[in-house]
């Protein structure tokens, strides 16, 4: 992936966007002057965001504003698109993941991702969760059993599946499949969990379960969640970043964004005037 060095859009004021760094909390991801192009299309413009650990950070904004692109830069998934060019820095635990010397495999064990549509493997429930640990060399059946149980408990699905671990994951409901995918993520003991609209394909009850789960998981993990659902962002996140046309318009405590946003465009979006 070409890493460009010049800074684009230098006039954007970014001080107010680093709400997280003023607190006495560790920053897990710090994106600095991040720009991304798909060919000629400028999809991310001078993004400066400091994301704290053990918090839920919500990314909101209208369709096409760059939310998914942003989240996919954090695990370098975006570079699967051949036309992508990136400039700036993405510091994960203070290491620039865009550096040529940085091995993308290091991210795979630290950063898990949950997608919009549940995507279990066509394997048993057990194998779905044991897959990651096996890839990382764990062969001991007893240890794998423990990891599978702990991860399924962590994803609040153990009681529903403990008697059918050897059945195919496709036999689960959509909401159960999504929690299984979260369990699969937990099994690699990640540091960060990226979630790209994880409840958009779920019914209200499953959505609630996943939302409750996210709240519990932040005690142990840092969570960055893209959502179209503003009530969801308000319910479950500590900080919210509002994206518009590839820019971060405002990044602040979620309470502030939803009660007294600083920017008129944020207010218009959260009150449903556009998007
Ligand atoms: N693979 C790609 N190739 C070219 N352009 C892309 C690609 N993926 C996204 N884009 C463009 O980048 C911009 C941001 O897209 P992105 O998917 O990040 O937005 P989003 O905010 O997540 O949208 P949505 O809420 O609809 O999922 C859009 O203009 C989109 O058309």
UniProtKB/TrEMBL annotation:
Domain ABC transporter residues, every copy: 29-270
Gene Ontology cellular component annotations, sorted alphabetically: plasma membrane
Molecular-function GO terms, alphabetical: ATP binding; ATP hydrolysis activity; phosphate transmembrane transporter activity
UniProt keyword terms in alphabetical order: ATP-binding, Cell membrane, Membrane, Nucleotide-binding, Phosphate transport, Translocase, Transport
GO biological process: phosphate ion transmembrane transport
Membrane topology recorded in Swiss-Prot or TrEMBL: Peripheral membrane protein
Entry superkingdom: Bacteria
Keyword set includes Signal: no
Protein name (Swiss-Prot/TrEMBL): Phosphate ABC transporter ATP-binding protein, PhoT family (TC 3.A.1.7.1)
């Amino acid at each position: 992936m070409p890493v460009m060095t010049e800074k684009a859009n230098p006039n954007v004021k970014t001080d107010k966007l680093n709400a997280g760094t003023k607190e006495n909390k560790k920053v897990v991801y710090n994106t600095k002057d991040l720009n991304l192009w798909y060919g000629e299309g400028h999809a991310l413009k001078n993004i400066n965001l400091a994301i704290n650990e053990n918090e839920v950070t919500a990314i909101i904004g209208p369709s096409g504003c760059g939310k998914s692109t942003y989240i996919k830069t954090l695990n370098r998934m975006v570079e699967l698109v051949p036309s992508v060019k990136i400039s700036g820095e993405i510091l994960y635990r203070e290491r620039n993941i865009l550096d040529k010397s940085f091995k993308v495999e290091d991210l795979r064990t630290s950063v898990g991702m949950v997608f919009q549509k549940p995507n279990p493997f066509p394997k048993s429930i057990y194998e779905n969760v044991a897959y990651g640990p096996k890839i990382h060399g764990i062969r001991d059946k007893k240890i794998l059993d423990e990891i599978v149980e702990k991860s399924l408990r962590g994803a609040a699905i153990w009681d529903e599946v403990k008697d059918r671990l050897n059945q195919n994951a496709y036999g689960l409901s959509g909401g159960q499949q999504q929690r299984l995918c979260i369990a699969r993520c937990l099994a690699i003991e990640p540091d960060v969990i990226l979630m790209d609209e994880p409840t958009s394909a779920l019914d209200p009850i499953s959505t609630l379960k996943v939302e409750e789960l996210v709240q519990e998981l932040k005690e142990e993990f840092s969570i960055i969640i893209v959502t179209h659902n503003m009530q969801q962002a308000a319910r479950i996140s500590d900080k919210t970043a509002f994206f518009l046309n590839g820019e971060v318009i405002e990044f602040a405590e979620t309470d502030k964004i939803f009660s007294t946003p600083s920017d008129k465009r944020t207010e218009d979006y959260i009150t449903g005037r556009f998007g």
